[in-house]
Amino acid sequence: MPAWQADGKVRLSQEKEDGWPKLLDIYFEDNQTIAYSFEEAITIEKTGMYYLWFVICDEYLSAATVRGQTTWKNPMGYLPGMMYPHIKFFGVMSLLYMTLAIGWMLLYARHWQDVFALQHWITAVVALGMMEMSTWYFDYVNFNATGFRPYITTLYAVFLGCVRKTISRVLVLVVSMGFGVVLPTWAPFRTR
């Protein structure tokens, strides 16, 4: 049942006892073609899924355009709840890639005389993986802290991932071509 407001207009929905849904009315003044809403901060106390709806009930305003910006901030930052675990994931992956790179470089330096061409490409894959994971980590940390996501950082991380995946898949193809292709380039088993 509609609730009548003091100004005589009908409101189809009414805020319940807990204050939800929040209703913010915007009216056109006189013959104005633009209506402004004031900045409104709403504190959400309970975890859940929330929606922002713009409902235009007047048939004369059916072609109205809504422009604006909404900012949603969680207690932990600006990242949506579904993306927040990515910070820890990419941080741990960055550390794991760094540990792998350090171990790989130590073994690489120790056996530098026996290194063959395939191992140079494996080094590139490890380095690209470390750069990609750390770029994603800093991208998410920045987004969580500021609420803005730099376009170029995301492109850079995606580009690094594409290059890394391309090189690693080519390496898999090269190795799977057979023992005869890999063996002649491997120093300890060279035929004299």
UniProtKB/TrEMBL annotation:
Organism field: Apatococcus fuscideae
Residue ranges constituting the GOST seven transmembrane domain according to the UniProt record: 85-185
InterPro entries, per database record: GOST_TM, GPR107/GPR108-like
Spans traversing the lipid bilayer: 89-109, 121-138, 144-163, 170-189
Compartment(s): Membrane
Protein name: GOST seven transmembrane domain-containing protein
Lineage of producing organism: Eukaryota, Viridiplantae, Chlorophyta, core chlorophytes, Trebouxiophyceae
One GO CC annotation: Golgi apparatus
Membrane topology: Multi-pass membrane protein
Main location: membrane
PANTHER family (UniProt xref): GH17801P, LUNG SEVEN TRANSMEMBRANE RECEPTOR
Transmembrane as UniProt keyword: yes
Keyword list, A-Z: Membrane, Signal, Transmembrane, Transmembrane helix
